[in-house]
Inverse folding.
């Protein structure tokens, strides 16, 4: 059975004090309550009180996803402004101190903090998660195994977190290094079947490593409750159009890999150890560096690899109705990732991180009004 390849997109936003440009808790306002009245279950709190998450409906096409996501960003920008706040899409805040950020009062988050202690409290990061509808569980495992190869490329495109605690980290995605302190993160091993994955989860639950499979925080996972494969590796991009481009590329990748499998031409598998080498390069250099082409056994400019990647999925994008969205990945290559642009603003303004926050706020609104 051909998967639906439906799309669901989740974005995590920063709520900012417009005077200080620092993170600011939204819990003392009615922002979340009003958001739930207007957007229902499409908006929710996250672990820290200065984080708010939105999620699109289940969308059949990338055009539907774009319409829904753009509406969510507009609504959240308006809600923030109504409550004296500014909404920002960035995977880390340039200078905020996680030690003074309060945890949202929820039993689920309290358990996470109790289990993980400082690792959880310091996890002040903001991501993009993309769900692709793959209803058959065995197909979901096969596609997850193959999709792992493309995760570093997707991270490089989305990289948008060069600063942490007021410092230039030298990394394009410092968010990735903050998050990998959690257990059960990073690129997973491959699994031979859905039953092997289930047995793995059941063992961890039986031995009190976790209480449910949502505590698996890998860069890609079969969602435990939805019929989707969830790609979790990405930083949240600055612009909504960049989110849509990356989501469209993810959807097209899943469709192409399924097409290959259906023709008995499965994509070549590589070890987790090799894939993690490319993830580090994506974390460090974003789209400005080189990744390893494991087939050629040589380094290749990320820019060239992304263009090869776009050619790889080209024969499925028309059927998905996503050619324009996927093609706009080229714009990221031309203008630089969010991390590249943040660093350019930082240099232009003499290291003023407040100017970087202002730029991030402007980019968050780009193309929406």
């Amino acid at each position: 059975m051909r998967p639906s390849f439906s799309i669901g997109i989740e974005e995590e936003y920063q709520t900012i004090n417009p005077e200080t440009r620092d993170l600011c808790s939204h819990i003392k306002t009615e922002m979340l309550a009003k958001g739930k009245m207007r957007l229902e279950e499409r908006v929710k709190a996250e672990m820290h009180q200065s984080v708010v998450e939105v999620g699109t409906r289940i969308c059949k096409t990338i055009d539907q996803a774009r319409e829904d996501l753009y509406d969510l960003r507009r609504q959240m920008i308006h809600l923030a402004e109504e409550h004296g706040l500014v909404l920002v899409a960035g995977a880390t805040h340039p200078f905020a101190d996680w030690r003074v950020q309060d945890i949202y009062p929820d039993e689920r988050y309290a358990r996470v903090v109790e289990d993980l202690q400082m690792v959880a409290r310091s996890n002040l990061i903001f991501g993009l998660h993309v769900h692709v509808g793959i209803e058959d569980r065995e197909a979901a495992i096969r596609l997850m195994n193959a999709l792992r190869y493309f995760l570093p490329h997707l991270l490089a495109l989305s990289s948008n977190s060069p600063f942490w605690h007021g410092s230039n980290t030298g990394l394009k995605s410092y968010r990735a290094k903050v998050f990998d302190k959690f257990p059960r993160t990073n690129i997973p091993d491959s699994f031979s079947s859905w039953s092997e994955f289930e047995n793995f989860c059941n063992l961890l639950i039986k031995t009190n490593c976790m209480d449910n499979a949502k505590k698996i925080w890998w860069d890609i996972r079969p969602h435990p409750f939805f019929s989707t494969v969830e790609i979790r590796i990405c930083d949240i991009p600055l612009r909504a159009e960049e989110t849509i481009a990356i989501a469209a590329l993810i959807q097209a990748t899943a469709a192409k890999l399924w097409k290959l499998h259906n023709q008995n031409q499965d994509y070549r598998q590589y070890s987790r150890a090799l894939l993690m080498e490319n993830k580090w390069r994506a974390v460090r250099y974003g789209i400005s560096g080189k990744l390893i082409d494991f087939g050629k056994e040589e380094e290749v400019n990320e820019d060239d690899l992304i263009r090869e990647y776009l050619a790889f999925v080209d024969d499925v994008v028309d059927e998905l109705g996503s050619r324009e969205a996927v093609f706009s990945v080229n714009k990221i290559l031309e203008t630089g990732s969010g991390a590249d642009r943040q660093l350019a603003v930082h240099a232009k303004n003499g290291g003023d991180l407040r100017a970087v926050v202002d730029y991030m706020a402007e980019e968050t609104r780009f193309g929406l009004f």
